[in-house]
Design goal:
Two copies of one chain form a homodimer.
Chain A lengths: L5 H8 L3 H9 L10 H14 L5 H8 L4 E6 L6 H15 L3 E6 L4 H13 L4 E4 L6 H9 L4 E4 L9 E5 L1 H14 L5 E5 L5 H16 L9 E3 L7 H10 L9 E4 L2 H13 L9 E3 L6 H4 L6 E3 L2 H17 L8 E4 L2 E3 L5
Parallel strand pairs in A: 1-2, 1-3, 3-4, 4-5, 5-11, 6-7, 6-8, 8-9
Antiparallel strand pairs in A: 10-12
Helix pairs in contact in A: 1-2, 1-3, 5-13, 8-9, 10-11
Chain B binds a DNA duplex (16 and 16 nucleotides) through helix 2 and helix 4.
Chain lengths: 339, 339
DNA sequence: CTGAAAGCGCTAACAT
DNA sequence: ATGTTAGCGCTTTCAG
């Protein structure tokens, strides 16, 4: 059985197709233009025959899709599902749906995403990208597709961004460690080709220096933000230190790696936080459950997703294009047993 | 600047629109019908002017969308992002995109999802639903939208389902315990109003009986699948046994509860696995981190997502509609120190 | 091997 | 307050 169309509704209600469309969308001039009686009749028929609008047809006509596409680098990182959740709450309440893409941190994945976004007449994009350039953003803007960037990478390229103040966050983490008496603090970095990895690494160095704490080159262990291989790498790395020169604290660039580090430390028989304290970044749910619970920097990821979607929808539906904003989110230090 | 259309391509290449469409889609009768020279010229022009197909227009014409919608109950549960990842890998490689919806385990969320799926001419659905009924499924099937259910709930309602073979899994867990010399085996059940809770409970009873092992009523402790309150409950329960009648092993219906049980057992001074062995179900990441590491049943969630998408796409693109399958996924027993 | 043309369901300008 | 109608970009039948 074929789906009911506006034509069917019109015929059964004894009106024209235009009138049906008007009760669905109103009119651009704000007037109502449909009598209560007619409207009632039409709505009735719609329910009766189970009419549903065909978004393809509407999209073809209006060149809109009520679709927001989201690009994330790694769905396996609990951060992103939460971001998506928040975005979904906002989007759904405004009549938008979410097209989600995990790029697996690959440039190919990001390019594919861009093509999809264009093919599907996506109304707007939420991007956590590592590879897209200003020119890509410009192309989007030219095509009339507004975007919101997650993180600072694409600030000043013409779109809104929403990030957390990483310097302030890392500063508070180091305050916490220093207060606990640590001075030999190591950094398990993220992928330093990635902007966040780079920022966290560089801010760590700067902040250590400004505290007059030594940052031996050996105190830097380079990771990738991913779980894989971190435990083994950390184990080997720790074994390379004599006890008295071993770092007494490790600041991992994210919780995933911090948790792997914890495993490694325990495996070689050291105590946390007695021998080595560990802290992470992101405050993923798992941070609370590991043994010992992990100290981390967190912020309300769902709110971030919501805010991103809100910002985006305002752009999509807004008349004028105001100056792009770079919004900073406040963070929170979750001090737990691992330090 | 407006987007290029097939018309533009045709004009610039000096051919008709039909020919452009043919090089894009071939012809239904399988013939080629476009000379190599013409084809080359057309492809060239497409690149030159950056032509991209308009999915709305194509969808309107074909009543397809190359869109797969996925319904999950809780993106905060690490299981689902992995499932989605797997599904995405498969879907993208076949030219489909993913429309994702978190229902927050609410009926309203599931209903909203169904409407979206219809409005958007979704080609197929992957459903992890708690509320949808056979009538809903029937409606989808009537509308020509194939679906794949995650878990056994919608088996025999006309769609394919993909689940893990819980009976085989529990059997292997019991084999493992019996082999270790256990005969007084207790069950910390999940919520038995929940389908999984019920299945695990009933299969446990049946399998114990078929082994000739006694299942004293006192060996069943009812939980809810959630962490909350399990530790205290377990502690109290264990204290009610004289040492010689105490179960020597506990099979918890999920890892979350197993981990709480471990805490309780250790708290009252019993040894794991010496005095009481513990095993769980799900193999969540945390299972690896607790002390002692938890024996559990796990399976490859990404593969499950991949398999679901593959099954679905086969249905979407398949000619005939074969009998629905209920696929069981193979599991893996992760034997760790807790047993 | 290629072209002409109908029409998918909808919106919105214009006419009544 | 309601109706008429063009046309969005595409696929596909039919006719060269």
């Amino acid at each position: 059985m074929k789906r009911a169309t506006q034509n069917d509704v019109a015929r059964l209600a004894g009106v024209s197709r235009a009138t049906v469309s008007y009760v669905l969308n109103g009119r651009n001039d704000g007037t109502i233009r449909v009598s209560d009686e007619t409207r009632k009749k039409i709505v009735e028929v719609m329910h009766e025959i189970g009419y549903r609008v065909n978004m393809n047809a509407r999209g073809l006509k209006t060149n809109k899709s009520q679709l927001i596409a989201i690009l994330v680098p790694d769905l396996g990182n609990p951060f992103y599902p939460l971001l998506i959740r928040g975005a979904q709450k906002q989007a759904h309440s405004c009549g938008y749906r979410l097209l989600i893409s995990d790029s697996f941190s690959s440039e190919e994945g990001e390019r594919e995403f861009m093509e999809t976004a264009l093919d599907r007449s996506t109304d707007g994009l939420i991007l956590d990208s590592s590879y897209l350039e200003r020119t890509d953003i410009k192309m989007l803007l030219d095509a009339g597709i507004p975007s919101v960037g997650i993180g600072p990478r694409l600030a000043d390229s013409g779109i809104d961004t929403i990030s957390i103040d990483q310097r302030a966050a890392i500063r508070s983490l180091l305050d916490h460690l220093e207060y606990r008496g640590h001075s030999r603090i190591a950094h398990l970095s993220g992928d330093r080709n990635n902007l966040n990895g780079k920022i966290r690494y560089e801010v760590f160095l700067q902040e250590m220096k400004s505290r007059g704490l030594c940052v031996d080159e050996r105190y830097i262990l380079e990771g990738t933000f991913l779980r894989e291989g971190i435990a083994a790498k950390t184990e080997k790395w720790l074994a390379s230190f004599a006890p008295q020169e071993r770092p007494t604290a490790i600041f991992a660039a994210n919780d995933l790696m911090a948790i792997e580090a914890i495993k490694a430390i325990q495996k070689i028989g050291l105590r946390i936080p007695g021998d080595v304290a560990v802290c992470g970044f992101d405050n993923i749910p798992e941070a609370e459950y590991v043994e010992p619970p992990l100290t981390s920097i967190g912020f309300d990821v769902e709110s971030m997703g919501k805010a991103a979607a809100k910002l985006l929808i305002d752009r999509i539906e807004g008349e004028s294009y105001d100056k792009p904003q770079a919004i900073g989110l406040t963070f929170e230090l979750f001090a737990r047993k691992s330090t």
